[in-house]
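Hi L.,

As promised, SHS2 domain-containing protein:
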Amino acid sequence: MNMSFISDILKKKNTSALGIDIGSSSIKVVQLKKRGNKAILETYGELSLGPYGGVSVGQSTNLNVEKIIQAVNDLLNEKEVAITTRTCGLAIPFRASLLSVIQMPNVGQKELASMIPIEARKYIPVPISDVTIDWSVIPRSEVVEEVSEENKDKDKDRVKNIDILLVAIHNNIINQYKEVVLKTELDAKFFEIEVFSSIRAILEGVQGPIMILDMGASTTKLYTVDRGLVQNSHIINKGSQDITLNIARVLNISVEEAEVIKRSVGMGKTVDEIDLSETVLVVSDSIFAEANSFLFDFQKKRNKNIKSIFLTGGGSALKGFRDLAAQNFKVEVISADPFEKVETPAFLEEILKVTGPEFTVSVGVALRCLSEL
């Protein structure tokens, strides 16, 4: 006899959710618990992937799926992190995806569903069979504009088309993540591209066009976001590990030693009174120049000014980096604080403000997973 109705009654409802962010240099996890309408931080942790690839802590790696599975299992079973749930969501790296805003006729959802895969071929530089696509209609601005008599015809033409956010993810990446989930016995509810996790974690309620600068180990990702939707994106092939390598070269020390100094000193001076600011600027100036070009291009094409820039990713936690960014961009620069939305122990508040940018994606994933319990 099937007694599943009894097991459902006796089964305790899961109220915890795990957000997992597998980056190129580390894995970050955040576990949240639901209490009423609040998200409570239960635990969080990070595991460097460098040693799994035969390189130093902090360096970028390109691990095979077996090594990733090993690393995820190690973090899940780490006693100090004390993860207690396998219910989770996972972030897909931006580099494994493609985002485009395309225009389509203003027709019904059913017609759009049949038209978009055909139109997508124009924007996706690989066979359509190699990717999984998704899309959503970008809502028009809630601001109602006055339309003069002579512009009414133009306005009628404008509403004949709608903007669509087209998303494509390589199937081989999805299959790799499915294998990780299977072999680590995770209960994954969804995969999502990391930028959407970041938006959920730090931009809820933020008005006007903003830019996210996400500085990782090997790359820096740029996104312009308006009304909560990604408008443009760009990848710069420089990141925080380039700063580490510069420090190692200038001080003639190992990469591992340079990583420790970078994290403790930032743009300050070493114990030997060596000023590292110029060493950092070699990398940061290049990143800021490319980011400014991206920003100006958006403003010119959209005729809108970026109101603020949010810094996220582990590289942006470098001491002095926010002030340096503010000098370069000439607009408000904010260090992301994803834990602001989460109830945390008082004794961790200062630590989480410093480490917060590194956990933006994993917090965003955990928040979505928690909302779907």
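Residues 1-7, 142-151 have pLDDT under 50 and may be disordered.

Thanks again for sending the construct details.

K.
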